[in-house]
Amino acid sequence: MFAKGSLVWLASPLAMAVAVMTVSIWFRSIIGYAASVLLFLITVFMACFFRDPERRIGNGIVSPADGSVAFIDQEGRKLSIVMGLRHVHVTRAPRGGKVVGLERRSGRHRPAYKDVSETNERVEVVISSGLGDLSMTLITGFMARRILPYVKVGDELSKGDRVGIIRFGSRVDVQLPVGCSITAHLGSRVRAGESQIAEAIDDTD
Questions:
Q1: Which residues are catalytic?
Q2: 4 closest CA partner among 125, 161, 124
Q3: Are the C-beta atoms of residues 6 and 148 closer than 8 Å to each other?
Q4: Which pLDDT belongs to residue 117?
Q5: How far apart are CA 162 and CA 92, in angstroms?
Q6: Per-residue confidence (pLDDT) for residue 30, from 0 to 100
């Protein structure tokens, strides 16, 4: 299964590869053969990057993204997950609830693991859950140039529902409601929708 909006990213290099290969065979061009192989490899990369597998939803408050936990604040209510190119880049809701906020802020495209990522382009999604408001912020990175939300204000989400995609590597920050505590650790490898990152005293989900 592939992510929404990925068709053009998959079809374009594939179509070019087929066209270049056809011309190369006709003219017996070694350079053309090499170019078509490169385009086929790009198609394979795009297929891996835009994959969107089904997930078995975990317990508690789950990770919104695949990646590694790179930051946890001292209060234990905010964490950051850094995503690499090899990870699935479709983000998911950490908790079920209603989307009450969706704001895009333009900015730079600096490496997302650095402090300067605070000035990077981002989309903040606020979910009103039974535990209180929970926010997840999708942040672009050096290679990430576009955030595509799948949701809008007023949507009702279940835990693990798809929220959006960040193209080509970046970061997701999560701000938890009062009464929640983070169970993940720095360096923990997490999977969107599956890995528990936090819990609440009265959480029965």
A1: 170
A2: 161
A3: no
A4: 56
A5: 4
A6: 86
Parallel, antiparallel or unpaired: strands 189-190 and 97-105: unpaired
Indicate if the pLDDT at residue 90 is higher than 90: yes
**Tokens 């979910």, residue located:** 127
User: How do 78-82 and 61-62 pair as beta strands?
Assistant: unpaired
DSSP secondary structure of 11-43? HHHHHHHHHHHHHHHHHT-HHHHHHHHHHHHHH
- Name the CATH superfamily for 61-200: Glucose Permease (Domain IIA) (2.70.70.10)
Strand locations in 109-179 (E): 122-129, 132-140, 147-149, 156-157, 162-166, 170-175
Is residue 122 within 8 Å of 137, Cβ to Cβ? yes
Question: Quick one: tokens of 60?
Answer: 């508690």
Helix (H, G, I), strand (E, B) or coil at 41: helix
d(CA 32, CA 130): 59
Give the single-character DSSP code of 177.
P
Q: Give me 193's structure tokens.
A: 């929708």
What is the rounded distance in angstroms from the CA atom of residue 81 to the CA atom of residue 66?
8
Q: Is the pLDDT of residue 69 over 70?
A: yes
* pLDDT tens figures, 144-155: 568 899 999 999
